[in-house]
UniProtKB/TrEMBL annotation:
Reactions the enzyme catalyzes: L-ornithine + H(+) = putrescine + CO2
CDD domains in the record: PLPDE_III_ODC
UniProt keyword annotations, A-Z: Lyase, Pyridoxal phosphate
Designated name of the protein: ornithine decarboxylase
Cofactor names: pyridoxal 5'-phosphate
Species of the source: Inquilinus ginsengisoli
Similarity comment: Belongs to the Orn/Lys/Arg decarboxylase class-II family.
InterPro entries: Ala_racemase/Decarboxylase_C, De-COase2_CS, De-COase2_N, De-COase2_pyr-phos_BS, Orn/DAP/Arg_de-COase, Orn_de-COase, PLP-binding_barrel
């Protein structure tokens, strides 16, 4: 936690749970990615954290935006982005939402099936389209499922159909999995993309763009490579598979843009044991899966947690949230070391929580209010 956030918490003493996010860190992350990958346009993944303060900051810095819904499109426009800096990156869209986006000036759409391609052709004539292909997600801490993307051979055939439907076959996209710590993870997907480019060029269709997706990590408990390391690895793969005919590229950072900018302050509500002979403590916080920490599902994301008692003797504890739902347990399979001196009422800081926390806490489940956030 930096001094700016620490000072805010000390001076304001906000009620918990709350997220405090340093906008200067977001600006630094944007600059670092822009310098590491100067030939790629940055499309911030709005779903990571759609706060108006973040969108306005990034829009002013020149960022483009990857959106998943009409609401996110309107938010990006309200923040100062022009329509040509926004993509509708969700491959699952209602026809009416495609039409609305088109009416708002959006001309860049993702798809991964023939049915979606035909919807776009019907209500967004002349739009640029890019097809998402499947990747393994190996090496990612939050792998993505087969819900999105199609096999490369299908993508080739669908992109070949696009011109006949009145659309601009613009390119290929993929996502190597969120919190991807392997800088080489993009290589195989780029090899597949290059194959699609060559096959379509042989048919007289010149694709122009590769969407490298997101996956750029933030630091939790493990070290992560630098933006420069990702930039070097991706550039090497592009040159290996595309030679001198390099495509346009875009990246869609979300977690890597805002994750390390935020800290959640929580309070210990209860510490208990399940029997007289059970030495395992249960530490209940005033935030859990339903309050913004949904990415602890299957213990995929393991957040750094600090307390005022750090340095004291520690023992593994099971961490859980406050709701009356048995699924609201954060870390049980791999219990979390917590100070033995931790007491009810103590504050706990959960670091690296600037991404995918406020959005996951949008509903007041069990009557617990959505996560309060401060952008400083």
């Amino acid at each position: 936690m930096n001094t700016k956030i620490a000072s805010f918490l000390e001076e304001r003493r906000p009620e918990t749970p709350c997220l405090v996010l340093d906008l200067d860190v977001v600006a630094g992350n944007y600059q670092a990615l822009a310098e590491a990958m100067p030939d790629s346009r940055i499309f911030y993944a709005v779903k990571a954290n759609p706060a108006p303060q973040i969108l306005s900051l990034l829009a002013a810095m020149g960022s483009c935006f990857d959106t998943a819904s009409v609401v996110e499109i309107r938010d990006a426009l309200a923040a100062g982005a022009t329509a040509d800096r926004i993509s509708f990156g969700n491959t699952i869209k209602k026809r009416v939402d495609i039409a609305t986006a088109y009416a708002l000036g959006i001309r860049l759409f993702a798809f991964d099936s023939e049915a979606e391609l035909r919807k776009i052709a019907e209500v967004a004539p002349g739009a640029r389209v890019f097809c998402r292909i499947l990747t393994s997600g190996e090496g990612a801490e939050w792998p993505l499922s087969r819900k999105f993307g199609c096999e490369p051979c299908m993508a080739r055939d669908l992109l070949a159909m696009a011109p006949g439907l009145g659309l601009d076959a613009y390119g290929v996209s993929f996502h190597v999995g969120s919190q991807q710590r392997d800088t080489g993870a993009w290589d195989k997907a780029l090899e597949s993309a290059a194959g699609i480019f060559r096959d379509l060029a042989a048919q007289g269709i010149e694709l122009k763009m590769v969407n490298l997706g997101g996956g750029f990590p933030t630091k939790y408990l493990k070290e992560v490579p630098t933006p420069e390391a990702y930039g070097r690895a991706i550039d090497a793969s592009l040159r290996q598979h595309f030679g001198n005919r390099l495509p346009e590229t875009i990246i869609e950072p979300g977690r890597g843009m805002v994750g390390n900018a935020g800290v959640i302050q929580s309070e210990v509500v209860l510490i208990s044991n399940k029997s007289a002979n059970d030495n395992t403590r249960w530490v209940y916080l005033d935030i859990g899966k339903f309050g913004g920490l949904a990415e602890t599902m299957d213990e995929a994301i393991r957040y750094p947690i600090t307390t005022i008692h750090d340095g004291d003797a520690a023992e593994p504890a099971i961490l859980a949230g406050p709701t009356c739902d048995s699924a609201d347990v954060l870390y049980e399979k791999n219990a979390y070391p917590m100070p033995v001196s931790l007491a009810i009422g103590d504050k706990v800081l959960i670091h690296g929580t600037g991404a995918y926390t406020t959005t996951y806490s949008a509903v007041a489940f069990n009557g617990f209010a959505p996560l309060q956030a401060y952008y400083i």
